[in-house]
Amino acid sequence: MVIKKKYIKILTRLGNFECIFESNTPEKGYTVTVPKLSGIVSCGNNLNEAKKMIKEAIELHCECLLKDGLAGIKIYPHRIQIQKEYSNV
């Protein structure tokens, strides 16, 4: 089984995030991860749905990080910057 990977930047209201879209058969959907955001995984039945779902996951995750005041997040107008890795411990 060959897993195909696509690297796509997703524009969110908090900035751009490089995402990895993986699929062994595109007609069976995509699994998506975000290398800069540990633990974020989403999926979709097709590429457009996967893009929509990962955008929502990124925005929700970052909003929670900002709300909880976790280190490593810097706020800029209309975007954020991940400064360093963070831990959920």
Task: Describe the protein.
- The chain has 89 residues and is of the alpha+beta class.
- The chain has a single domain (4-82), classed as Double Stranded RNA Binding Domain.
- Helix content is 25%, strand content 38%.
- The protein contains one helix and six strands.
- Strands 1-2-3-4 form a four-stranded antiparallel beta sheet, with helices on one face. The chain has a two-stranded antiparallel sheet with strand order 5-6.
- It is elongated and about 40 Å long.
- Mean pLDDT is 81; it is low at 83-89.
Layout: helices, strands, pairs:
Elements: E1 4-12, E2 15-23, E3 30-33, E4 41-44, H1 47-68, E5 73-76, E6 79-82
Antiparallel strand pairs: 1-2, 2-3, 3-4, 5-6
Give helix and strand order, one letter per element, not per position.
Answer: EEEEHEE
CATH class: Alpha Beta
User: If you average the pLDDT, what whole number results?
Assistant: 81
Distance between the termini: 36 Å
Question: Rg, please?
Answer: 14 Å
Low-confidence stretches: 83-89
Q: Which overall shape is indicated by the principal axes computed on the Cα atoms?
A: elongated
Structural class: alpha+beta
| Sequence of strands across the biggest β-sheet | 1-2-3-4
